[in-house]
Amino acid sequence: MNCTKCKTKAVIDLPRHNAAFCKGCFNGFVHDQVARAIKSEWMFGKDERILVAVSGGKDSLALWNILLTLGYRADGLYVDLGIGAYSEQSHTKVTKFAEAVAASHGATLHLHTVEQEAGAGIKELAQLIHRPTCSTCGTIKRYQFNRVAIEQQYDVMATGHNLDDEAARLLGNVLHWQEEYLDKQGPSLPASVAGFAKKVKPLYRLSERELAAYAVLNRIDYIVEECPMAKGSKMLQYKEVLNRLETESPGTKQTFYWGFLEKQKKKQPTATTMTEKDRAVLHPCASCSQPTTAEVCSYCKMMARAKTVIPR
Length: 312
Hints:
51% helix, 10 strands
C-alpha cells in the first residue's frame, strides 16, 4: 500500500477518503483538516489567545500539539477529577506534555483540582450529593473551563471533540429529539452573553482512529484507557453502533454529522438565533456571576451542598 499523495510506503489507510498516507503526508492531511475547520467555522485567528481543555487523552493532547504547530497561541487547562490511579496517570501525561510544549512554544498549563475545592474526588462527591457521576463531572468541567477562560481573558476555549464524538452525540440527541441540544451542536458556539467564553471544536473533521494514529506517529504519550466512570454510558453505546455502520459503509459518520451541519446552516435567517435565545433566559448567578437560568447556577448549588455533607 503506497501513499496516495507521494507514492512512498503508506503507514495508514483512510477508507472514508479512499486514500492512504505516509507519515509526512498524513500529518499534512491532519493539519489541513484542522485548518479547514478553523477557517470554515470562523473559530479564531492567529492573534487570539486559545485555551485548550486537556484531559491526558489522545484527542486533547493532539489538538494542543496541532494548534501550536500551526502557529496559534494556545495554552492548556487540566481539571484533576481525583479518580484514583486514572487521574494520577492522566495528570502525569498532561504535565509531561506541557513541559515539552512550554520549552518549545512557550505554552502554559493551568491546573484545577476538584478535591482541593470540593473536599472529595468526583466519585465520592457524586455519591455524597446524590448525583450521577458523569453529570457531576460534566457540571464541574464545563464550569471550570469557562471560569478560567473568562478570568484569564482567553478569546476562545477549544475542546478535543472529534467526528466520532459529535456523530454519537448527534445520534443520541436525534433518538430523544432533544431540540435544544441539537440547536447547540455546532462546532463553534458564540460567547452569547457576558460571562460565557466562545467554545470551538477544531477536530470535528477528524475521526478517533485518525487522531490515535496522529498521536502514535508523533510520539504523543497519552492515556489509552477510557475513564472508569464512563463504563456503560450511552455515548459509548452510540459509538459502537456507528462503528458497525462505518465498517460496512466507510464515511457514514462523516455523512451523518456533516449533513446535519449543512442542514443547520440552511435554516431560515429570520429564525431566532442562539444568542437571542440565551439572552432571553440567562442571567448572572447570584453566587458566582456565571450565566444561568436559575437564581444560583448548578455548580454553586453543588458546591454548597458539598460543604454541608463533606467534613472539613
